[in-house]
Write a structure and sequence with these properties.
The protein is an alpha/beta fold and about 500 residues long. Helices cover about 35% and strands about 20% of the residues. The protein has 15 helices and 20 strands. An eight-stranded mixed beta sheet has the order 8-9-11-10-14-18-15-16, with helices on both faces. The protein starts with a strand and ends with a helix. Bound molecules: ligand BES, manganese (II) ion and zinc ion (ZN).
Length: about 500
C-alpha cells in the first residue's frame, strides 16, 4: 500500500473515491461544504432526505455527483463537531477504511485528515490515519488452508493537508505511520503464530531475520551453555522443563555514530505458559501462546526504529523460554540463584515471567543504559486492575514514567502508573532465600511483580509495562493487538524530538 500527502480541491481529484466528513445533525465539514456548492447542493439535498445523520461512524457512498471528477464520494459521519477527539478520529478512520474496502476503489483521496481534532496537529492526524488504515487491513491466515478471499483492491491512499507548507511534515508523518504499522504487524504475527511453531529458537530466528533486513541491526543469541556461564539461574530454571531450549536474544540498533547511551527494551518471551508444575487450569491456558508478546513488541519497536532510521541507539533484550511442567521442570520450594547473586525461592512456577526477566534485567547493566524499559504479559492481577484498555506502568524514575505515560496518551496506546512503594516489598520475604517469587499476602499482585523486578534494577533508570490485559484479545476473536508497539515507538519519537531540541 502506498501513502501520499497532498493538497488540493476536492472536486478536482480524478480518483476512485474521495472521502469527506459530515457532522451530526447533517452539518457539512468545510470540505463537504465546498463540494456541495460545486455539486449544486447534491449532498445537502441527499442529507435532507435523511440518508445520513452524521452520527459517528456512519457512512454513505455516492456515485455520479455532478461537477465532481472523482468516481465516488464516501461521506463519513463524524459525530458532534466540538467533540471530535482522539477516540472519535480513530473510529472515523476505521469506519471509512472498512467502507472503502467494500468498494472496488484502488485509489482514494481522503480529506478526513483536514478535520479539526482537539489538540492534534497534521503530523498526529496523518500518522494515526496511516497506522489505522494499515491496522484495519491486517489479517492472519498463515495457518488456514482456505484463505479469506476478501477482495482487496485498494492500493493507494492520498491524505490531504490544508496548505503546501504542511507537505514536508505530512510526508514524514505518513512514513512514521507506516513504520509503526509494520512494527505492529510483526508483533501481531509473532503473537498469533501457534506455540508449536513460535518457540524460543523461532524468536531468535525472527531477530536474525530483522538483522538481515536492516544493516543497522545486529543480533547475538545466547544458548543454555552461554547462560550457564553467566549464571542466569533464574532464567534457566524456567526453560529447563521444556524440550524447546531457552534463548537470550540481544538486538542492537545503532542509529547514531556517537556513543550515545542506549535505550534498552527488555521483553518477556515465554512462548507458552502452562504454569509449569504449578499447572494452570485448562481454560486459563488458552491465550498463553501470547505470553511472548512483550518480546514481540520489542522486535516490532526495533523494526519501526530501523525503518525510520531514528537517531538513537536502542538495544533489545529478549528472555525466551517455554514454561512446561514435568520431572525436569522446577517445583515449588526450589531455590535458584539469579545472575545478580540474589537467591529466589520459587513458590509458584507460574510466576515465571519475573524469573526470566530478572536475569535479562541484570544482563542489561552491561549496556550502560540511558534507561531500561521492560515489557511483559506479567500478571492476571493487572488485567483485574486495569482491564484491556490500559497497560500497567511502573518504575523507579519519575521522568521516565511520565514520558511513557505521555507517549501512551499521544499514541492512544495508553498506560497508567501503579506504585512500587517500599511498603509492598516485605510481602516478598522468604524464610529460605533472599526473595520469594510470589507475595504473601498475595494482594496487589501486579505491584508485587513490579516490586520483584525492582530488586534487579537498582543500577539504572527503569520502567516496567505490564501488558497482560492489552497485548491480546481473548474470546471468540482471540488475537494479538500488537500493543504496546505504538506506545514504544511514540516514546522513541519523543526522545528524538527532545534530543533535537537539546
Ligand atoms: N503469563 C501469566 C500472566 C497472565 C495471566 C497474562 C493472564 C495474561 C493473562 C503469568 O506468568 C502468570 O501466570 N502470572 C500469575 C502470577 C501468580 C502466580 C503470582 C498470575 O497472574 O496469576
Ligand atoms: Mn505464568
Ligand atoms: Zn507467564
Amino acid at each position: 500500500m502506498e501513502f501520499n500527502v497532498k493538497t488540493g480541491h476536492p472536486e478536482k481529484q480524478r480518483t476512485n473515491c474521495i472521502v469527506v466528513g459530515i457532522f451530526e445533525n447533517r452539518k457539512l465539514s468545510a470540505i463537504a461544504e465546498k463540494l456541495d456548492t460545486i455539486a449544486e447542493n447534491f449532498i445537502s439535498n441527499l442529507l435532507k432526505k435523511g440518508d445520513l445523520e452524521g452520527n459517528l461512524g456512519q457512512t454513505l457512498l455516492l456515485h455520479h455527483v455532478p461537477n465532481v471528477l472523482s468516481d465516488r464520494i464516501l461521506l463519513v459521519g463524524c459525530g458532534r463537531e466540538r467533540e471530535l477527539g482522539d477516540k472519535e478520529f480513530r473510529e472515523i478512520i476505521r469506519k471509512a477504511t472498512n467502507a472503502i474496502l467494500q468498494t472496488g476503489a484502488t485509489e482514494i483521496v481522503s480529506f478526513l485528515t483536514e478535520l479539526a481534532v482537539k489538540g492534534r496537529d497534521n503530523r498526529w492526524k496523518i500518522r494515526q490515519a496511516v497506522m489505522l488504515t494499515l491496522e484495519t487491513l491486517y489479517s492472519f491466515d498463515n495457518y488456514k488452508t482456505k484463505k479469506d478471499k476478501a477482495r482487496r483492491t485498494l492500493r493507494r491512499v492520498i491524505l490531504t493537508v490544508p496548505t503546501r507548507r504542511d507537505l514536508a511534515l505530512g510526508e514524514r508523518a505518513a512514513l512514521e505511520g507506516q513504520a509503526i504499522a509494520s512494527g505492529l504487524s510483526l508483533a501481531k504475527d509473532l503473537g498469533n503464530t501457534p506455540p508449536n511453531i513460535c518457540t524460543p529458537i523461532f524468536l531468535a530466528k525472527s531477530a536474525e531475520n530483522l538483522a538481515a533486513e536492516f544493516p543497522s541491526i545486529n543480533t547475538a543469541i545466547l544458548d543454555e551453555k552461554d547462560m550457564a556461564s553467566l549464571k542466569m539461574g533464574a532464567l534457566l530454571s524456567v526453560g529447563k522443563g521444556s524440550q524447546n531450549p531457552p534463548r537470550l536474544i540481544t538486538l542492537e540498533y545503532r542509529g547514531r555514530k556517537d556513543k550515545q547511551k542506549p535505550i534498552v527494551l527488555v521483553g518477556k518471551g515465554i512462548t507458552f505458559d502452562t504454569g509449569g508444575n504449578s499447572l494452570k487450569p485448562a481454560m486459563s491456558m488458552i491465550g498463553m501462546k501470547y505470553d511472548m508478546c512483550g518480546a514481540a513488541s520489542v522486535l516490532g519497536a526495533l523494526r519501526a526504529a530501523a525503518e525510520l532510521e531514528l537517531p538513537l541507539n536502542i538495544i533489545g533484550v529478549i528472555a525466551a523460554a517455554e514454561n512446561m511442567p514435568g520431572s525436569k521442570a522446577s517445583r515449588p520450594e526450589d531455590v535458584v540463584t539469579s545472575m545478580s547473586g540474589l537467591t529466589i525461592e520459587i513458590l509458584n512456577t507460574d510466576a515465571e515471567g519475573r524469573l526470566v526477566l530478572c536475569d535479562a534485567l541484570t544482563y542489561s547493566e552491561r549496556f550502560d543504559p540511558e534507561v531500561v524499559i521492560d515489557i511483559a504479559t506479567l500478571t492476571n492481577a493487572c488485567v483485574m486492575a486495569l482491564g484491556s484498555h490500559t497497560s500497567g506502568l511502573f518504575g523507579n524514575h519519575n521522568p521516565l514514567v511520565n514520558d511513557l505515560f505521555n507517549a501512551g496518551l499521544t499514541s492512544g496506546d495508553k498506560c497508567w502508573q501503579l506504585p512500587v512503594w517500599d511498603e509492598y516489598q516485605d510481602a516478598l520475604n522468604s524464610p529460605f532465600a533472599d526473595i520469594a517469587n510470589i507475595g504473601n499476602p498475595p494482594e496487589a499482585g501486579a505491584i508485587l511483580a513490579a516490586c520483584f523486578l525492582s530488586r534487579f534494577t537498582k543500577k539504572y533508570d527503569w520502567a516496567h509495562l505490564d501488558i497482560a490485559g492489552t497485548a491480546w484479545r481473548g474470546g471468540k476473536d482471540r488475537a494479538a493487538t500488537g500493543r504496546p508497539v505504538s506506545l514504544l515507538v511514540q516514546y522513541l519519537l519523543d526522545r528524538c524530538q527532545k534530543i533535537k531540541e537539546g
